[in-house]
Amino acid sequence: MGWTLAFAAVAILFVLISGANDGATLIGLGLRFPRSPGWLIAALPLLVIFAAPYALGVEVARTFTERLANLGTGTGAAVFLAGVVTGVVVVAVLTGKGLPTSLTLAVIGGIAGAGLGAGLPVSWSGLVSVLVIGAAAPLVGLLLGLLLGASSRRVPSFRGMPRVVLGAHVLAYTAQCVAYAVNDGQKMIAVVSVAVGVARAGVGGVGPVEVPPVWMALLAGLFLVGALTSLTRVGERLGRGLVITRPLHIVSAETAATGAVLGSAALGSPVSMTQSITAGVVGVAASEGVRRVRWQGVVNMGTAWLVTLPSSMALACLAGLALRLV
Predict the structure, then answer these.
(1) What is the rounded distance in angstroms from the CA atom of residue 118 to the CA atom of residue 5?
(2) What secondary structure letter does DSSP report for 98?
(3) What is the DSSP letter of 156?
(4) How far is CA 66 from the centre of its chain?
């Protein structure tokens, strides 16, 4: 009973933090578009996150539970829990120091480090593959943002342009929500799936990824709650702390991030939607000149990303070692 409550508490907290970290960035950029339908911008992630696993699969969620370490043994669930908790702690500490970072990267490092410390086989090839793709995705988002931003300046103005651009924004934002649901958002599915498995069978190895509809509905609702709690803070960082965006630029940034994340999802590799959105926004702003980018904010985030993986791996390795000695 104690383990069941612990896993349930961690799963709930993790989904709330994911909403505050990823969801607020996703929704915040969408709401910066003039005359955006606020109810639709908030509702789309909720609906897509709920439906995507059943319509498009959970391949990326399986990466967290299967491709980083052999968690199918008797201690796999406890090791997974240690990795997730360590990842959350690292992100909380860095964010508290004003260095917003990638929760996805922290969890990847945490799971691999906990597995190593616990003496479980770690898939180094799988880990390297995930990290390479994860590092490439923001670069792709940056380049796409740069190209789309430059192209958007050549779009001629016409009478119905505001309405057309608003429609393009809704489409781009919807695609972005889908990209998040089939990629970065699936880390939540992995955590909730392990919690469900422990509730059903007790602590043991991590089984197949499976989340009942009732749990998925709860997941989507908690994600939205988390997003709304930090929407103002993240919106300010995206708008004033990083770059200044324009309507057509927002569409370009959304499209750039979507392309990068969907490409990674096709490879079954989790990447940070927050990183991809940030890269897309920076690329779009840079298309108007490097002075449009608030480079200090970019440097702060880059520094946090470089610190995140080794920190989460080292701390999780100690946690895994403690589990091994118990």
Answers:
(1) 22
(2) T
(3) P
(4) 18
- Please name the residue ranges forming H helices in 37-185: 38-56, 59-62, 76-96, 103-117, 124-152, 161-182
First to last CA, the chain: 19
Name the burial class of residue 208, with classes exposed (0-12), middle (13-18) and buried (19+) by CB atoms within 10 angstroms of its CB: exposed
Residue 287 pLDDT level (bands cut at 50, 70, 90): confident
Q: The whole model's pTM is what?
A: 0.88
Note the pLDDT tens digit of each residue in 68-78.
999 988 888 99
With CA atoms as reference, report the closest residue to 11 among 185, 225, 188. Answer: 188
CA quadruple 255, 127, 107, 237: dihedral, nearest 10: -30
Inter-residue contact 193 to 211 (CB < 8 Å): yes
Q: Which residue has the tokens 């904010």?
A: 297
> CA-to-CA distance for 259 and 264, rounded, in angstroms?
9
- Which letter does DSSP use for residue 255 in this model? H
Q: Which two tokens stand for residue 157?
A: 């103005």
Rounded Cα distance, 275 and 92, in Å? 17
Q: What are the pLDDT digits (tens) for 85-95?
A: 999 999 888 87
- 10 Å CB burial of residue 274 (0-12, 13-18, 19+) is buried
Q: Which amino acid is present at 289? A: G
The angle that helices 273-286 and 161-182 make with each other, rounded to 10 degrees, is 150
Q: Structure tokens of 178? A: 């889908």
